[in-house]
Amino acid sequence: MSTNPSLTATKEPVLALIAAGFTTAAAAEKAGIHRNTVTNWLHQNDFRSALERARSDKALLYQDQAEALAAEALAAEALAALRAIIADPAVPPAVRVKAAIAMLDRAASLPPLAAVPDVQPSLPVLKCCQKNAQPSPPVQPSTPLASPLLDTKIGRNQSCPCGSGIKFKRCCLSRTGIHAAPASAA
Question: For residue 145, how many other CB atoms are within 10 A of its CB?
Fold first, then answer.
């Protein structure tokens, strides 16, 4: 619903855009109206007062967010200082215990994390695909030069039989201990 009853449905989005930091021309373009119309609205008392209220509300929101960020930063610094006190052996034990208790009190006052519910697929297409899915074939371990290949002679410049796509002389020749077929003298 409208926050200001005197504003029309056309004026409200323009008001929100201007309050968010858009120029009058950019707000008019986004709303699909002429910029002179927005300029004329700015001369009306009801639009101007609504814009001032919206800008002050936005400023309060930014101020609250800045204060919250500053408070979080101070809390992080305080916790870091407490950790340093606890870890420092030169600090008296009574002070270290008080610092540990303060950290535990802080941890106890934090709200618990909400549990994330398990999401089950709700689309019938997914259930259908899951029912008809085939298990993947077991992966065979890649061993360089299986035993039947040891009986055959492999040329140095041939592709390696391990399936790497690299020449045999650069891949498995040094690892196997077998010698390549001698180069044919032609």
Answer: 20
Token pair belonging to 150: 């040891």
What DSSP state is assigned to residue 121?
A: P
CA distances from 182 to 42, 154, 156, 185 (A): 92, 9, 8, 9
Residue 29 CB neighbours (<10 A): 15
Instruction: Answer yes or no: pTM beyond 0.70.
Output: no
Cβ contacts of residue 180 below 8 Å, gap of 6+? 153, 154, 155, 156, 168, 169, 173
pLDDT of residue 136: 57
Place of tokens 């994330």: 116
Spatial neighbors of 70 by CB under 8 A, at least 6 apart, are none
